[in-house]
Structure formats: structure tokens, C-alpha cells
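Q: Joint fold for the lines below.
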Amino acid sequence: MVEMHVAFAGSPLDRADHLRGDAAALAGLMNARARLLRMEGLDPVVADDGALGWGTLAEAADNAELVFLGLLDDRACFAPTPQQGSVAPPNPRLWQALATLSGPDMAIYGTARSLTGWHARHRFCAQCGAPTVLAKGGWQRNCTSDACRAEHFPRTDPVTIMLVEHQGNLLLGRQPRFPHRRFSALAGFVEPGESIEEAVAREVLEEAGIRVRDVSYVASQPWPFPSSLMIACHSHTDDPAITIDANELEDARWFTRAEVTAAMAGDEQAPFIAPPPTAVAHVLLRWWLDKGG
Amino acid sequence: MVEMHVAFAGSPLDRADHLRGDAAALAGLMNARARLLRMEGLDPVVADDGALGWGTLAEAADNAELVFLGLLDDRACFAPTPQQGSVAPPNPRLWQALATLSGPDMAIYGTARSLTGWHARHRFCAQCGAPTVLAKGGWQRNCTSDACRAEHFPRTDPVTIMLVEHQGNLLLGRQPRFPHRRFSALAGFVEPGESIEEAVAREVLEEAGIRVRDVSYVASQPWPFPSSLMIACHSHTDDPAITIDANELEDARWFTRAEVTAAMAGDEQAPFIAPPPTAVAHVLLRWWLDKGG
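A: Joint structure:
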């Protein structure tokens, strides 16, 4: 495996899994030294120095549900759960705030956003409809109905995102919601009953009408909007004829290595604008250029 | 990538994603030629010839929610959603039934079990507690509250399962619930905020106190108990000293290549019993033996 840096990975927190189920230990950690991540809803409150803002537990609302993120320099770190969740993709203002954060801060924030957003969207039991309560330091929610008692766990959705190669060219597509001139790797959720390799093949066939072979894994990335695990792959095809699914894609085209190189260099003459460095698609394109033809 | 056969993958169904959102097309497919998978709750009803049992839609209960599995030989295939869900692991009786199925039948059943089990466990909206109804042919559930209208999608939980290698030996462990003398690869869920590689490193450190390096992806498998995506990896360590987390593991040991070979051959003198061929851990061990030292 090639080691690659992906945004939102590389958290410096020790998740200290063994403490989550230990109510006495958790209570002991909720002291004056504990840190509370400052958030507005699901968004970060960035401090004047451009780092994540932290306060103490005294800042938390009286009835706030707090999630135990883990230990950092032996201090317990918590994040507050907002009343309302959202599955909206990040807006430009959020990206501006994130742009000032260090890599480790991005990773801490991503974990906090995924987890607190999950709580906000799961205040009721999907099995019986009764209210649920936070458990195990925020890594579980329990149904409050004695007749049900279902346990619920944070959700992580695996998503495949893939390059398709034909005679040294790459297939990239654009969704209607993309910024002007942006093209990126095709992508889609892994469904029940399929392997990663099968999901890659199905998505490319559905969206672009192309049959792939030799799917290989390249890299993965946690993506907290709202809670994806991006699984980046590479594949080949023998037949480059594109049939676009207009419900999914606005356009899909083959680009030459020179065109991808120009786009990744930010060249204004490039035929498209590459995905930003925070996206695993960017890492995937960089990997493809670096590995050579 | 090495192509490897994993159980529950390789479904012959065309998922026909474009039909799911087309209510008129779906209704048109629910005709006398349509097939209904025979199930008892979440378990398969195996026919006399050892294959999956199929009937017609006339067999479905009047108020049954039906999931559109896809097309097989141009006939639409559906599965009935049971009233009660279960996240219990498969029992020996279920494995006996599955043992008679072909690979493609295993894959069809796995998809049906994952999906119908998800419906049975998600009859209420996690966001507001109101009842939900099946939508998009069973690939979605919608909240019935006008104030909420949340859309819910089938859940697939990524799980890492990993080999750890040190000087040609392999680390394997046993959980208390395992059959007598069984050892297998360590495993654990990917959590919000971590990559696959980070999840592998965390799990091995938590369960066995071992720090790994050079994590690489090997294979993946859909596992319908209840809805996992198994992500099988290989890694190395430089320090073989084991510290077991007794909450997770009953034992963990290093095994030589000869010992793993004997176990995979079913040798009674082997120091442990290998995981069964249906488990991706078996495929992972076979891959490791085949690739050589």
C-alpha cells in the first residue's frame, strides 16, 4: 500500500475505547481539566489563531448530551450534541472555516461532527419509536422502552469512488450540483449484498454504461458529511463507449494524462477543474499521476 | 488485486436501480411472472432440491411489505419483510440450510436477509419517532410525519478483519463465543472519523496490545448478519508481545505457517480449528498461505 494523506484522517485522539463502558471512569474524567469542543450546531467554532476552539465542560448547556471523543495529552475531550441534525453537504462558509484548521484538527472535528450529527438524527428508536438516550460515552444510544431495549450504534456508510482507465485515459464525470467546470471520480454507496469490487462495477455501469475489470483498492477516507467511509479504487475497461445516466450525471468524459495533469496543477487552460485536496478523489488522481502510465 | 471467491458475493441479480424510483414500472413488474423469495422470518425456505424456494406474489400476506431485489432472467424478484427483526448471529440450523445453497443462491439470500432485516428494525423514524413506510422498492423508508419527512436508507456497517504477521508467523485470536478450539483473524467495526487503515491499527492495539505497520487491503465480503461489509486486510508488526483485552478476546497467539497450513487442511493434530470457508477470514488465511513467505 502507498501511504497517502487524506483529509479528516490522522486524528491525534486516543479513543480510549475501554473507558466508554466504564461509567465511573467517564464521570471521573468530566472534571475541570476536561475540554469541550466549541461547536455551533454541527459547525466548528474556530479560535482567533485558526485552530479548533475548546472550552471547559462548564460551558455546556445543563441538559446537553456530551460525546466522549477520547484523550488528548491525558485530558478528556468531549463534544456537545445539537438538538437538530442535518445531512446537508458542507457549505462554502464551513469550508472557509475548515481551511484554517491543521490536519489533526480537521480529523478531530470530523469525528465530532459525524458522531454528534448521528445523535441529533437518532433521538428515537427505529425499532419501536420510543425516545433513546446516549450511552457508553456517546458511542451508543439505548431505547428507553422496557419492551424494546434496542441498542443503536453510530452509522458509517461505505461509499466507493473510482477511477476507470482505458488506454491511458481516465473517465471522470460531473454531477449537476458540482461547481462550474468541476469533474471528479464517479462514486456511489455500497449496498447490502455486494462486495466493494461489485459496488464499483455496478456504479460505473449504472452511471456511465461502462463495464470495468481488475478493480483494485487504493485508499480510504472518513468523510463526515454526514458519516461516509470513502473507499477509493482503480479499475480498467476495454470498451470506452459512454452511456450517461442523466439522473445521476450531467456529463462524463475521457481525459488524457496531460489534461488531468493540467487540471491538478490548477492550469486555467485545463479542460476541467479538479476536485479539491480535501476530497479523496484528489488523492486518487494524484496517486494515478504519480504511479505513471 | 487477486480475485477471490467470498461467500454472499456474486449475486446474479440485476439490481435494476433505475426501476426502484419508478412506481409505475415497479407496479407493472408485480405480475404473475414475478417471483417471491420464500422466507420464514429472516431465514430461507430451502426447496427439496436444496436451492432457494421461490413462489409467486400471490403467496404474500395482504399487508406484507415487499422488497424489490432485482431482475433475474427478466423476471422481477421480491422478498417479504418480516414483522420482527433480529440482529442475532446465524444459528447452526441456518448454516445447515445455507450449506445446500449454490454460491449465487447464497448471494441472493444474503441481500434479501440484510435488506428485509433492516426494514423490520426500522419501522419508526429515528429522527422523530413517527412510523415509516417502505419506499423506492424497499431501498428506502420514508417518515410519515409531515413535519419531519426524513428519508432513511439501508445500513451497511464496514468491519475490518485483519491478519498480523511477524517473522512469518500470524496473530490469531478467539472470542469467548467461538466454537471449541476455533481461532480466527481479529476484527472490529470501522468507527466515525477513521480510515480503514486506522481502524485496523486501533483494533489490533485494543484487542492484543500490538502496534501494526504497512496495512494493506486484501478482499471484501458482504456479511448479512445483520448487515456488515467485511474489509479484510493484512499488516505487519515489529513487536510480537501480546496483551489481551479480556473483554474482547479469550485468547490470542502466534501461529507458524505450518500450524496455519495444518488447520486450513482440517488436520486433527493442528493446534486450532480454522474459520469455515464461508467466512472471509478463511479466504484471508488461504490468500496468506498461497502468497508464500
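Q: Anything notable?
A: Helices of chain A lie at 17-20, 23-29, 92-99, 103-120, 196-208, 257-264, 280-291. The mean pLDDT of chain A is 95.
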